Amino acid sequence: MQIQEKQINELWAAMPEIREILSESKNEKEARKKLFNYCKDLEWDYREGKKSLHKLDYSTTLEAIKVFTNLISLRNEQIAGFSTLKHLWGLANDNSEVKVSESFLEEFRHLFLAMAGKANIARGWLGPILEKDGIKMIDFQKIKGREAGKARSAYLDSLYNKVNSYINRYPTGLDKSLIDQRSKNTEKIMQYFSASEDDWYDYNWHIKNIFKDKDGLNALKELIPMTDDDIQAIEISLEQGIPFGITPYYLSLFDFNRDDRKYDYQVRSQVIPPMHYVKLMEEHRQERNYYFDFMGEHDTSPEELITRRYPMISILKPYDTCPQICVYCQRNWEITGPMLPEGMPTKEKIDKALSWFSNHPAMRDVLVTGGDPLALDDELIKYIMDKLCSFEQVINIRWGSRIFVTLPQRITHKLADLLSSYVEPGKRNVAMVTHIESAAEVTPDLAEAVTKMRNRGIYVYNQLVYTLETSRRFQNASTRIAMKKAGVDPYYTFYPKGKDEHKDYLVPVARLWQERKEEARLLPGIFRTDEPVFNVPRLGKNHVRAWQDRELIALTPEGQRVYLWHPWEKGIAPVEPYVYRDIAIKDYLNELKRRGENIEEYDSIWYYY
To answer: Which of 246, 255, 192 is nearest to 226 (CA)?
Structure first.
């Protein structure tokens, strides 16, 4: 691997003292001790005020010093299984055997800048952009009263205009231009199937015409432009029995004019699998039930169709299929193809799973998911609700479903009436949790489906899966605003674990912290009242905001941060933490650049540890 001399020079220029210590040390052991002492003295200088720092940069600098000592800790090397210091020491001593990536160099350059008090967090990322437009922050300590109020309001208007220009980069499905475009798409699909408008609003018609086999692929080729890679990935999926399916409704959200995903990348990426995903699913097809079960649901299932990981809630999975297959699905190890008969368990299995709840008074909350349980017929939904509502301890029933996004026609008045009949104020609540991934998915049809539920006392919440396709600047701000227009409440932002097959969808966890602090913070509180969580493999959901629940312990030669994630049981039992290798930040930024983003606007990502 070629390492540019310029990058190395920039690395050591950020903190020449560290290079000097490394190069003067005979070995890593000596370097480790000297570096610890140097960091201790450096921190004390900051704490005694011997080094001047802006008050807003102070905490970042101290955190960076802590992170550096963590990275060179012998204890953390033993946990991670390799030495970060070995590569850093070798680099300083011109060891030709040391092979590190650009990401590794950039991580340490930014870490050294922060340790030296040069991260410039106080300036922020948006301030300089506003200044380029001639908008400067006013010193409100110099003016008072109405004058100050008017000046602040004028500044906030300018700030809003800049932020809104970012938000408007992501059109919503409620915009007239997209509505008109998708109406034409719908007409084209209906003409292809010789369908009527009544057919289009009949969810059974959509289920009957899901694009899921070779005939479906041929139909897709006629209806939308597709790249050769997309076609090949779908062909392999169909040949190998890898679940694939798109509803006619969701296809209408595609851009029918081009295949490069310039305008519909958020939509296409949901359902058209990347080649890496297909190859890995094919390679491990025979062992998929365990190979892809990163959460270890096999080990948290006290009864078939039930998953229990927490004290007062369990998951009921009465249906192992969906009308549409999401490529990034967490349960790709068990999901069958769209609406296949084998996705339906026997009535005996469902009864046995339901009876399990009667013997467990701790079950205050039941999440009915799958698969997509709202794809079941009304009679079976009623049967499940009757059983669950007969248990006195069950006070909340959540239905986890993407039907609102993939097939909103399924939310009929009859279904809404049925589910709302189980709401008993003061005794029992019924709620919906869906997956809206982009503002483009928020359509009038979705809004109508949500309204049917809300008008009957059933609230609809959203769990947004934080993927590469949803991680651009202000993209989720746009999505949250669109959701609120449609009556959907943000619930939590879900950071997916590092399943190998989902490599093309993963994002450095630092980007989620950055988004919450720098973008979501600019929205009204009710638009951003969700909780960012990381589903720690085999351990369960952990709050991303809480620094006490994670520890940055190493950096791989490829530039991947290695985190030690604590279990949710922390404080209850000494369960072993999980060692997680994140996506390299530089690799992520390079991908954003390839997609046309100005990555200078993301530069503060390095300082979220």
So the answer is: 255
Report the predicted TM-score, pTM, of the whole model to 2 decimal places. Answer: 0.93
**pLDDT (average), residues 487-494:** 93
Which residues, in sequence order, are bridge partners of residue 434?
A: 462
| Mean predicted lDDT score pLDDT of the chain | 92
The yes-or-no verdict on residue 3 having pLDDT over 60 is no
Rg value, the chain, Cα: 26
pLDDT band at 336 (very low <50, low <70, confident <90, very high): confident
Q: Are 463 and 273 in contact (CB under 8 A)?
A: no
Ramachandran angles phi, psi of 353, nearest 5° = -65, -40
**Distance (Å, whole) CA 540 – CA 565:** 10
Per-residue pLDDT of 199-230, as tens digits, reads 999 999 999 999 999 999 999 999 999 999 99
Instruction: Name every residue whose Cβ is closer than 8 Å to that of residue 51 and which is 6 or more positions away in sequence.
Output: 45, 117
* 3-state DSSP of 307-372: ECCCCCEEEEEEECCCCCCCCCCCCCCCCCCCCCHHHCCCHHHHHHHHHHHHCCCCCCEEEEEECC
Dump the DSSP string for 184-230. Answer: HHHHHHHHHHT--HHHHT-HHHHHHT-B-SHHHHHHHHHHS---HHH
Range 378-399 average pLDDT: 97
Alpha carbons 542 and 550: distance in angstroms, whole number: 9
Residue indicated by tokens 């699905």? 329
d(Cα 471, Cα 590) in Å, to the nearest integer? 14
What is the edge-to-edge ordering of all strands in the sheet holding 531-536?
Answer: 306-307, 313-319, 365-370, 396-400, 429-434, 459-465, 488-495, 531-536, 540-543
Under DSSP, the state recorded for 599 is: G
If DSSP codes are grouped into helix, strand and coil, which group holds residue 262?
coil
Distance CA 510, CA 603 (A): 11
pLDDT of residue 301: 85
Q: Evaluate whether 436 touches 463 at the Cβ level (below 8 Å).
A: no
- Which residues contact residue 28 at a Cβ distance below 8 angstroms, ignoring those fewer than 6 apart? 83, 85, 86, 89
- Joined together, the tokens standing for residue 480 give 């949250």
**Token digits for 460?**
């609809």
Does the pLDDT of residue 569 top 60, yes or no?
A: yes
Is the pLDDT score of 1 beyond 50? no
Closest CA to 509 of 442, 583, 399, 415: 583
* Residue of higher predicted confidence among 496 and 449: 449
Closest CA to 209 of 345, 312, 323, 322: 323
CA 239 centroid distance within chain? 30
Do the Cβ atoms of 489 and 461 come closer than 8 Å? yes
Model confidence pLDDT, tens digit, residues 261-315: 999 999 999 999 999 988 888 887 776 665 566 666 777 889 999 999 889 999 9
Residues 6+ apart with CB under 8 A from 493: 463, 464, 466, 476, 512, 516, 530, 531, 532, 533
Res. 583: pLDDT tops 50: yes
CB-count exposure of residue 468 (10 Å: 0-12, 13-18, 19+): buried
Q: For residue 33, what are the contacts with CB-CB under 8 A and spacing of at least 6?
A: none
Strand order in the sheet with 550-555: 550-555, 561-565, 578-581
Cis status of the peptide bond prior to 173, with omega within 30 of 0 = no
